Task: inverse folding
């Protein structure tokens, strides 16, 4: 029985073709700037997204951290969503390592930072205040895409007020596929963009930060400070290039499967489907049945993550096929048919 792992799109394993691309990769010492495959990946994403330069890093967390460190100095602050990854889920890295203060903003339901709240949070230049330097957005956020019109307005506000603007685009390509636009149409509203290759795109490791030469140069220096120098990382970059060539368009399949799963779960008496956005389905189940549901699904070869809240996040990806979706829905139906 093929396992169906809906905990996250980070659980994908490299395909045989991706492993072959990794095996065949031309490599060198990237600290000397001599890994041709790392260079090719950095150039490829910079070109595709419309930026001067790119920097390959091990994780999205490091990519975002380096962006914050590149944009902001000690005593500066960045405006960020209260539930954004760069505020809530990155260990406070910008504060710990950069003495950069986050100014969290309560987000709207679609994940956007209401621009009146953003404008009101920009501090006057005065010794009392941290210097507001950066607006950080996230797209997709909990699977939701930010409207292109909103991005235009956010970017105009940032430019007008002299702020930099960074995108945590861990799932930028999911957003682009869902909005049916090239990814650069989203990226063009930002000074720097971080993209994860290790989520729905299916690479085992890797994120790329893109931006102008000056900021990427600073980020490269901070990567070294954070211990993040690579040697023959071309084998990993080859997996990322393979993902860009073969796994972008197919994200639409993940979105369709998430929609199918949401539709099937909505027909079951018990769970309440809250919504489906790109490759994520959010569903409430009675808290007192969470553990039993988890055990029941495990027996059926299905993995989910449960916490203490009623809401489950089910994530589709490269390693979940149509049969996996039907099996999951069938297992939910069997569970809720019995009390
Ligand atoms: C996963 C994720 C990150 C961080 O990526 P890692 O590679 O896990 O460090 C950043 N932002 C968002 C929105 C993410 O989903």
Result:
């Amino acid at each position: 029985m093929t396992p169906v792992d809906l905990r996250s799109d980070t659980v994908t394993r490299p395909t045989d073709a991706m492993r072959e691309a990794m095996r065949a990769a031309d490599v060198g010492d990237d600290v000397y700037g001599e890994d041709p495959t790392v260079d090719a990946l950095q150039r490829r994403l910079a070109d595709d997204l419309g930026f001067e330069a790119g920097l390959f890093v091990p994780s999205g967390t490091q990519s975002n951290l380096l962006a914050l460190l590149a944009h902001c100095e000690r005593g500066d602050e960045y405006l960020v969503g209260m539930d954004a990854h760069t505020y809530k889920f990155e260990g406070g890295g910008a504060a710990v390592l950069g003495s950069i203060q986050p100014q969290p903003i309560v987000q709207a339901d679609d994940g956007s930072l209401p621009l009146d709240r953003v404008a009101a949070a920009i501090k006057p230049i005065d010794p009392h205040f941290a210097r507001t330097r950066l607006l950080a957005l996230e797209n997709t956020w909990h699977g939701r895409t930010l409207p292109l019109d909103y991005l235009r307005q956010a970017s105009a506000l940032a430019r007008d007020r002299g702020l930099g603007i960074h995108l945590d685009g861990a799932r930028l390509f999911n957003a682009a596929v869902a909005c049916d636009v090239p990814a650069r149409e989203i990226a063009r509203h930002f000074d720097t963009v971080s993209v994860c290759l290790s989520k729905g795109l299916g690479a085992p490791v890797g994120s790329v930060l893109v931006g102008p030469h000056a900021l990427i140069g600073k980020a490269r220096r901070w990567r070294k400070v954070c211990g993040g120098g690579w040697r023959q990382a071309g084998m990993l970059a080859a997996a990322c290039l393979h993902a860009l060539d073969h796994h972008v368009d197919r994200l639409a399949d993940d979105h369709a499967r998430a929609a199918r799963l949401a539709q099937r779960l909505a027909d079951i008496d018990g769970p309440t489907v809250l919504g489906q956005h790109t490759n994520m389905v959010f569903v409430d189940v009675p808290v007192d049945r969470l553990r039993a549901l988890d055990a029941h699904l495990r027996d059926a070869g299905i993995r989910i993550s449960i916490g203490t809240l009623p809401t489950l996040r089910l994530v589709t990806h490269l390693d979940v096929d149509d049969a996996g979706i039907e099996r999951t829905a069938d297992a939910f139906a069997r569970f809720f048919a019995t009390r």
Summary: The first helix runs from residue 16 to 23. DSSP finds 14 helices and twelve strands in the chain.
